Amino acid sequence: MKNSIVTSLLFLASIPLLKAGVIVVEGKYQEKNLYVQNGYAGNGVGFCTYEITINGHVSTDEVNSSAFEIDFKAFQITPGAEVTVEIKHKDDCSPKVLNPEALKPRATFEIIAINVDKTGLLSWSTKNEMGSLPFVIEQYRWNKWVPIGQVDGKGTITTNSYSFQTVAHSGENKFRVKQVGFGGSSKFSNSVSFVSTLIQPTYTLAKDAKNIQFSGETLYEIFDVYGNVIKRGFGANLDIANLTKGEYYLCYDNIMSDFKKK
Questions:
Q1: pLDDT in tens, the chain (262 residues)
Q2: What is the b/e burial string over 110-142, where b = at least 16 CB atoms within 10 angstroms of the residue's CB?
Q3: Nearest CA-CA partner of 106 in 164, 27, 175, 36
Q4: DSSP for residue 40
Q5: How many CA atoms lie within 13 A of 207 on its CB side?
Q6: Contact, 190 vs 63, CB < 8 A?
Q7: What is the DSSP letter of 47?
């Protein structure tokens, strides 16, 4: 009896255990399918992948080939919804997802309405967002678009509403919003504007050249002669004590000027 048990245990130990691995791909559904390079198992018997699950449900996609497509249509997933794909494969090989970026958020929003009121409150509504991406708020000043804030996008295809309190400068104020998607591709809204009644501020460079005093609070930037941003901020007093002697460009309110530190 004892010898029989030992023999049975030795027999079971000689049977190789089925080991497996899992490749997980996560993201937001962008109405694009995944493509997988499969190949054969390491022992040459059968193909590497044996099962695909999408959000926990087994896919009916045919995986017994050297390459196959993971099709999301059968699962009726809403564009922009969270997706988790598990590619289960044998332990002695590994399939390769050829386009994992297909589940990365892209800037797809469409503006329904955008406006700014006389207080500088910027409001906009969107549709067809297919993934949560931040909206960057930009203001046009100093002959360029300057980022002044950020609002997290909701990432749904339904109507979404947002607002951001801007800080106005004197004269015409122009704003827009943008999103930067996977790969650095950007999408912009149209611009909106209003005219502020604020008085244009002036500035005074202290005799000791340690600070610049503005007549009112303002957004400002200082550049060196090579175009590098040295200082950036908001306020009525600008500390320049640590700047070396030389020529600088000063941008404030909606004005571009220059000064020399002696």
A1: 444 443 333 333 333 334 479 999 999 999 999 999 998 887 778 899 999 999 999 998 899 999 999 999 889 898 888 999 999 999 889 999 999 999 998 899 999 999 999 999 999 999 999 888 999 999 999 999 999 999 999 999 999 999 999 999 999 999 999 999 987 889 999 999 999 999 999 999 998 889 999 999 999 999 999 999 999 999 999 999 999 999 999 999 999 999 998 8
A2: eeeebebeeebebebbbeebbbebebbbbbbbb
A3: 27
A4: B
A5: 0
A6: no
A7: B
